[in-house]
Specification:
Layout (H helix, E strand, L loop, with lengths): L8 H28 L5 H7 L2 E4 L8 E6 L2 E7 L2 H10 L28 E5 L10 E3 L9 E3 L6 E3 L19 E5 L2 E4 L7
Antiparallel strand pairs: 1-9, 2-3, 3-4, 5-6, 6-7, 8-9
């Protein structure tokens, strides 16, 4: 009020607007940490997040292991000799064409991959979840592959399970697709090849 007892409306509007602005800033400052607490931690996000892998330095015959959703995922760059040896294993494996419905559609073939040169597998035995050992060496009765030391299951270099071993199914092929010729994204199914 002024000396005359009249209300100064301009001063009142200024004080009201200033209070509203300061109150809004305070509410936003309080809301940001509150809303951020609802967001999953970086560790939780990383546990299920897709993983992009550069394959340009992977030489034929080499394998790289990455982690996706807490599981080891193998990427093997197969040689032409390895791919031709898959034909020799068809009679020895339980599911040569990966017809079991647990596999993505693009893995339901002899080489079990989108690009025959690159094999992408979850590195856990389908029997009890042990980690098989990569054994690319060829012998008289073995064209190379993966051997599970826990109970003796064997898989060829396409991850197909041999007959008469404890493992009931081929090694799992995770969802993946190529984002470029030498880059693969694991964890996101890009559809058929």
């Amino acid at each position: 009020m002024s000396d005359t007892g009249a209300v100064d409306l301009d001063k009142r509007r200024f004080l009201t607007n200033s209070t509203a602005v300061v109150g809004g800033i305070g509410a936003a400052a309080a809301a940001v940490p509150f809303l951020a607490s609802w967001k999953p931690s970086a560790r939780a996000e990383a546990a299920g997040a897709p993983v992009e892998v550069d394959l340009s330095k992977l030489q034929p015959g080499e394998r790289v292991t990455i982690e996706w959703r807490g599981k080891p995922v193998w990427i093997l760059r197969r040689t032409p000799e390895t791919l031709s040896a898959l034909n020799q294993d068809d009679a020895k494996v339980a599911d040569p064409e990966s017809a079991e419905p647990m596999q993505p559609e693009y893995a339901q073939n002899q080489h079990r991959s989108i690009n025959p040169e690159f094999l992408v597998l979850v590195g856990l035995c389908t029997h009890l979840g042990c980690v098989p050992v990569y054994q690319p060496e060829v012998t008289a009765d073995w064209n190379g592959g993966f051997y599970c030391p826990c109970h003796g299951s064997r898989f060829d270099l396409a991850g197909r399970v041999y007959k008469s071993v404890p493992a009931p199914l081929n090694l799992e092929v995770p969802p993946y697709h190529f984002v470029a010729d030498n880059r693969v994204l694991i964890g996101v199914d890009g559809g058929a090849a």
